[in-house]
Each structure stands twice: as C-alpha cells, then as structure tokens.
C-alpha cells in the first residue's frame, strides 16, 4: 500500500471562534458514497465509513494547517470521499464544526490545498 496525504488549512467563519487549550481538532476522511453522512459529526460517523482521521491538539489560533495520511489502496476512483473537521472540548462536546463533508480525492475533487471552514455548532 502506498501512503498518501491530504493537506490544507482549517479556518474559522468568524473572528470570534477561539480555540482553548483543552480543545481537540478532529479531521476525518470518509467514504460518503453510500451513506447520508452530510450532517454526521465525528462522534456519530459509522466506523465503516471512516478511511482515516487525525487529531490535533497543539494549536490555539486560526488558520490551522493540517496533513492527513491515508492508504491509496483504500481509495476507489468510482466512489465519493469527503473530509470534515470537528473541534471538541475535553467533555467531547463539539464546539466548532465544518457542518458538512467537503468532496475530495475523486471526480476531479482536490487532493491538496483543501480549505475547511469551521463555525460554532449553533450555526447548524
């Protein structure tokens, strides 16, 4: 298997979005072909749809650069994939979210320079 990367930046929808020391940033790559994952946040995504994820906990301001690794052999060019970001506190409550999956990898969607915008959960 060949290890590949998705990279980009996470930004906030508002200058009022602040990251506390106890917040954890979770970036998730999923197969979105056969599921209604559009409104699923990290704790609720079925494991079988998750291709890869990464957690970041050493950032305190936006923008946040990220790199997510995945195995190229797990990607089928005929399927659809998406990436999202959820930022949780120490109680595992979602504070900020991208609210949706951003299409990546297949169907001419980007593999790099991915821009994820997060906002407060009450914006849903």
From TrEMBL:
This is Uncharacterized protein. It comes from Adineta ricciae (Rotifer).
């Amino acid at each position: 298997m060949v290890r590949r990367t998705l990279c980009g930046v996470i930004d906030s929808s508002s200058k009022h979005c602040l990251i506390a020391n106890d917040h954890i940033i979770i970036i998730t790559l999923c197969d979105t072909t056969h599921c209604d994952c559009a409104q699923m946040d990290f704790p609720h995504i079925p494991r079988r749809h998750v291709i890869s994820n990464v957690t970041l906990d050493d950032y305190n301001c936006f923008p946040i650069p990220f790199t997510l690794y995945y195995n190229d052999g797990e990607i089928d060019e005929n399927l659809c994939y998406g990436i999202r970001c959820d930022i949780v506190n120490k109680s595992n409550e979602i504070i900020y979210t991208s609210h949706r999956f951003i299409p990546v990898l297949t169907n001419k969607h980007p593999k790099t320079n991915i821009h994820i915008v997060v906002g407060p959960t009450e914006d849903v």
